[in-house]
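Exercise: predict the fold of this chain.
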Amino acid sequence: MARIILVEDDELIRETTKELLEVIGHEVVLSAPRGDNALEAAPGLAAVDLAIIDLSLPDTDGDRLAARLRVIFPDLAVIISSGRRLIPADLDLAPEKLFILQKPYDIDALSLVITQAMA
């Protein structure tokens, strides 16, 4: 089981993803629609294993948010989700423990990328 921060501005995607994560046995410790919401709440969290972050948020880019979260949680694995085709080199983020999740995704794709991220 992973403790997960989920940041997604689309409410339907955020709520559906949260439900899928819980179905496959993970704990969503923070679900936020914006990067600033996540950064404000993150220091109060005990431990986080993984962040799933939308690339295009209203207030920041997902990779920039991930870099700031890694200051708080240095070993944080990061999954960037996007409707655009991406490769890790497209992102402004260190490639260690960095994974891409192409939208739209289903429970199988979500489960697979989490397994890879937590390995």
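Check your answer against the key: Helices lie at 11-23, 35-41, 62-72, 107-118.
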